[in-house]
Design goal:
Number of helices: 16
Strand order of the largest sheet: 8-9-10-1-11-19-12
Oligomer: single chain
Largest sheet: 7 strands, mixed
Helix content: 25-40%
Length: 529
């Protein structure tokens, strides 16, 4: 069809515009990282649980006042600090450019409210709160913490990298009672949460926060500049590890967290993938007993359980027999840090079923089964249940194993009711070594009864020592106190250490720059095509 000259020019102009637009889109193609994390994300409040998937979510969406670098040194993150000459008052000042995801500025009032909510549930925060005499807002960008005695607990607590990390939230959100999980996803961190795409337990999507102003310093551990170099990160749930690796080999997935040793041959030697095992993401296994319900309200039964359990069978079932994948360790604060000890090592590391049977006989065990919760959907936990159950049976216990997903374990372990009414007797889990190595904050040794972690051990002397550690004048004093806590924890069976293992991630060769830190984070990561 013949077109008038003017119409032909318009058509050509339109075609040029379309082509230029297409070229622009191609030049700015969206970069997406797809990751299979250690567990599905089913909740959105990083203060309600020590589950590491919530900690990981927190680092994507929120930020912290302080952070620790690769060497473990405390650094400014959202705020800098100054200490008064008498060592009693810390003044924290927010840096410029901090905004919530809705565009409003971060204020000191937000931070004070966030700390006041967090310190109710975190073990280090609880100790800090007891030592603190006042926390006051100075102006929009600064606030103070004052203590009755000189202590470094403020820096230790506010830079806490794992467990329940002290994430800052808007004041209106932080004022939510700690018993009520928050639903807001407004943070000030390097990513924004895409609520419209969220499918609990299935998918979580994080978008680059274009308004985030990183620090100027290079990234180091959890500190320094958090520079987002991709447009989107998708967490997709694949409970079966083989399915996750198959998806990775087909190009659907870029990162799989915590891959079992026996699956690594699938990617060994393949230049399209590499493995990484950051030391700070290694873990300690532990078994936890419920002190509020029979039979483990009785020390003899707790001692019998500890005697029945041995570390090596669990480690072999969990991560394989390779020497560099795991190690036995009797120290409650880990074997690689300054608080390592060999107290009762032989009794803790090796199973002694005959001693267990003797203790049960002394206690008058009536043969009533104990209920063991087994998480079946996490690669690091699923193998533990059958090993624990068999060792306990070998030691004279009758055991009922109740299999469930990790989310159900997390929900049920909060119950102090009898087993028949939804309670429990025993479960196992893992904690990353930075959490384990913190005598003030480690949930496994806190022993304040109702304020303790699930299992609720009650050993007042341990609580006194945790507070003393926070006020200790030097490293030698801290080491002495930590070893006292270790001995009390073992003698009272506050927890049963079950060895240490490496967490191995499989990563697409397209991804580079993952920070060596306490948690898997996605700032400073590039993805090539």
């Amino acid at each position: 069809m013949f077109l008038p000259k003017s119409s032909s020019g318009l058509l050509k102009g339109a075609l040029v515009s379309v082509l230029l637009g297409a070229s622009s889109v191609a030049a700015h193609a969206e970069t997406t990282i797809t990751a299979v994390m250690n567990a599905p994300l089913r909740a959105l409040d990083p203060a309600i649980s020590t589950a590491y998937i919530l900690r990981n979510y927190g680092y994507m969406v929120y930020d912290t006042l302080l952070a620790r670098d690769e060497a473990g040194k405390v650094q400014p993150q959202m705020a800098s600090w100054a200490v008064s000459e008498d060592g009693l008052t810390y003044t924290f000042t927010l840096r410029d450019g901090l905004k919530w995801h809705d565009g409003t500025p971060v204020t000191a009032a937000d931070c004070v409210a966030s700390i006041a909510r967090w310190d109710q549930v975190d073990k280090t925060g609880q100790v800090m709160a007891k030592l603190m005499s006042a926390m006051e807002i100075v102006d929009d960008k600064s606030f103070t913490m004052t203590f009755a005695e000189p202590t470094g607990i403020a820096l230790l607590a506010l830079s806490k990298p794992s467990g329940i990390a002290p994430f800052m939230m808007p004041k209106a959100v932080a004022e939510t009672p700690i018993s009520t999980p928050i639903t807001s996803t407004i943070g000030s961190g390097p990513f924004k949460f895409d609520s419209a795409s969220y499918q609990p337990g299935v998918q979580a999507v994080f978008l680059k926060n274009e308004d985030y102003v990183p620090r100027d310093e290079p990234s180091s551990g959890m500190a320094g500049g958090k520079v987002v170099k991709v447009d989107k990160v998708i967490w997709t749930a694949m409970p079966d590890p083989m399915t996750a690796l198959t998806a990775m080999m087909s190009g659907e997935v870029d990162f799989v967290e915590q891959v079992q040793q026996d699956l690594l041959p699938l990617v060994d030697g393949n230049p399209d993938f590499y493995t990484q095992a950051f030391a700070k993401q290694g873990s300690q296994n532990l078994v936890r007993l419920n002190w509020t319900q029979p039979p483990f309200d009785n020390l003899k039964y707790r001692e019998a359980a500890m005697a029945a359990l041995g570390q090596k069978p669990m480690l072999n079932a969990q991560v394989g027999t390779a020497e560099d994948s795991s190690s036995t360790c009797a120290a409650v604060f880990g074997c690689s840090g300054p608080y390592a000890t060999d107290y009762k090592a032989e009794e803790i590391i090796k199973a002694n079923p005959e001693k267990s049977k003797e203790l049960l006989q002394e206690a008058g065990y009536d043969g009533k089964p104990i209920m063991l919760m087994q998480a079946t959907d996490l690669a690091s936990l699923a193998p533990q249940g059958p090993v624990i159950a068999q060792q306990l049976r070998d030691g004279g216990f009758k055991v009922d194993v109740v299999a469930m997903d990790w989310a159900s374990v997390v929900a049920r372990r909060a119950s102090k009711a009898p087993v028949a009414e939804g309670g429990w007797n025993i479960f196992s889990t893992t904690n990353v070594l930075p959490d384990v190595g913190d005598p003030v904050g480690f949930i496994g040794t806190a022993a304040g009864g109702d304020s303790a972690w699930f299992g609720w051990p009650d050993v007042p002397k341990i609580e006194e020592l945790r507070a003393s550690f926070a006020e200790a004048p030097d490293t030698a004093s801290q080491v002495k106190i930590a070893k006292e806590i270790d001995q009390l924890a073992i003698d009272n069976v506050v927890m049963i250490p079950m060895g240490e293992f490496a967490n191995i991630n499989v990563v697409s060769a397209k991804l580079q720059g993952m920070p060596e830190a306490e948690a898997p984070v996605f700032w400073n990561v590039t993805k090539s095509e």
